[in-house]
Design goal:
Number of strands of chain B: 10
Helix content of chain B: 25-40%
Largest sheet of chain B: 6 strands, mixed
Structural class of chain A: mainly alpha
Strand content of chain B: 25-35%
Low-confidence stretches of chain A: none
Number of domains of chain A: 2
Structural class of chain B: alpha/beta
Distance between the termini of chain B: 34 Å
Order of helices and strands of chain A: HHHHHHHHH
Strand order of the largest sheet of chain B: 6-7-8-3-9-10
Strand content of chain A: under 5%
Oligomer: heterodimer
Radius of gyration of chain A: 21 Å
Distance between the termini of chain A: 30 Å
Shape of chain A: globular
Helix content of chain A: over 70%
Number of helices of chain B: 7
Chain lengths: 201, 226
């Protein structure tokens, strides 16, 4: 998540524009899915890993950030071994790992603000067509990323409150109050956005 | 400041949050106190148009909070009771720059104003920090910086020292004292308003006292029964 994964630095990816990185990410995704070559996927993974490790993260932290997604990919690979050849599974696995690693590298080198600005620019043609308001869409995206830690903290607080009162902790009993409290906060956040003049013009 | 309430009342459904009220505020430092649910936050929210009057009108420096609502938001900045709610961006510097977006300013100008706001509160070192990692006092100072960066003439602070420890309370209180903007402070922290020019006391949706801090605080103790 961009909220907590951006790191300061001066690597090649840090210096590249957000647009160039997003275009490279989309182009490499299409390219890797069009290619069925194991060698191409392997080379792509090595390049992505090299880029990822160049952004200034320690190997341990770098692995921690993508570890859960890699585990999911390995699980998927294990399931696929029942249906596909080893070479096909290896191709599929390396493709996903390459893309996840590259995306993690882009995430680590892009601030949410820069990302929002780029999304706003990219959506301007749709705004001119009257389909949407580009700044509002990028703001919504930014808000999701900004408030994920807050929602998670609230989830933990509700869970602890259940425990403190000796109540069983069940997802269904937590989700109700979580949604209500989050919506209540949303009212204040909307008011704050207005008072801070984001939609003043 | 020149804030005028003319026969202004607020109802939320059947509940009367604020009884009809006519008064003018033009002091530089104004405080508002009262028990929970007394109408003080509703009163403060009327000033920048977050709450619209059910009857009557409110004008801020000549601007009507209903007709000129966007302009009033520029005139009066609001710092919320839970400042975490008003920090929109994940990183402090980005959040302070947030209010300057969509104003046609160059990136250099946004950076210059953002740096000025940070240095004004002595929080330059927090620029790259993530907002959900800030302490209570730091959050309050960042929230204040994020509002003053847009140059409002009036600042409304809703319980700014709420839930702060003694050290952070002192830091935030000092920052409020130093604000060059006109301020309206809503608080339960009586020490914060003991030197304001005018202190308003609300009770059960009515203005129960309007005058000097000593008189208002004395009356507040009587109402609270302590």
């Amino acid at each position: 998540m961009l909220t907590s994964l951006h790191i300061e630095g001066n690597s090649l990816l840090h210096r590249l524009s957000v647009r160039a990185k997003l275009i490279a990410l989309v182009a490499s995704s299409i390219g890797l899915f069009l290619s069925g070559s194991l060698a191409v996927q392997a080379i792509a993974f090595v390049i992505a890993a090299a880029l990822y490790l160049s952004v200034g993260l320690s190997p341990k932290e770098a692995l921690k950030r993508v570890g859960f997604v890699f585990l999911t990919i390995f699980f998927l690979a294990a399931v696929n071994l029942f249906y596909l050849s080893v070479a096909e599974v290896a191709t599929l696995t390396l493709r996903l790992m390459a893309l996840v690693t590259f995306a993690a590298a882009v995430t680590a080198t892009t601030t949410i603000s820069a990302f929002m600005d780029e999304i706003t620019i990219l959506l301007l043609p749709l705004e001119r067509l009257g389909w949407l308001k580009a700044a509002d869409v990028s703001l919504a995206l930014g808000l999701v990323l900004r408030f994920v830690p807050d929602i998670f903290a609230r989830y933990q607080a509700i869970r602890e409150a259940h425990r403190a009162r000796g109540l069983p902790v069940r997802p269904l009993t937590i989700i109700g109050p979580l949604i209500i409290l989050t919506l209540k906060d949303a009212d204040t956040i909307a008011a704050a956005i207005d008072t801070r003049g984001f939609r003043r013009q | 400041m020149d804030i005028r309430f003319t026969d202004c009342a607020v109802r939320f459904g059947e509940r009367v949050a604020l009884q009809p009220l006519t008064l003018t505020l033009n002091e530089k430092r104004i405080g508002i106190i009262g028990l929970n649910g007394s109408g003080k936050t509703t009163f403060a929210r009327l000033i920048n148009g977050l709450v619209k009057p059910s009857t009557g009108s409110v004008t801020v420096n000549g601007l009507d909070t209903v007709k000129d609502d966007r302009a009033v938001l520029s005139e009066a900045g609001f710092i919320f009771q839970n400042p975490q709610h008003q920090l929109i961006m994940p990183v402090v510097a980005e959040d302070i720059a947030f209010g300057l977006k969509n104003r046609g300013l160059s990136r250099d100008e946004i950076d210059r104003r953002m740096q000025a706001a940070l240095s004004r509160f002595g929080i330059e070192h927090l620029a790259r920090r993530r907002v959900h990692e800030l302490s209570g006092g730091e959050t309050q100072l960042v929230a204040m910086a994020s509002v003053v960066v847009t140059d409002p003439k009036i600042l409304i602070l809703d319980e700014p020292t709420n839930q702060l420890d003694l050290k952070n309370r002192r830091r935030v209180a000092g920052a409020i004292d130093d604000l060059p903007e006109d301020t309206v402070v809503i608080t339960h922290d009586l020490a914060l308003v003991e030197n304001v020019e005018r202190l308003l006391l609300f009770h059960e949706g009515r203005l129960a006292f309007d005058g000097n801090p000593q008189g208002a605080i004395h009356r507040y103790h009587e109402i609270a029964g302590c």
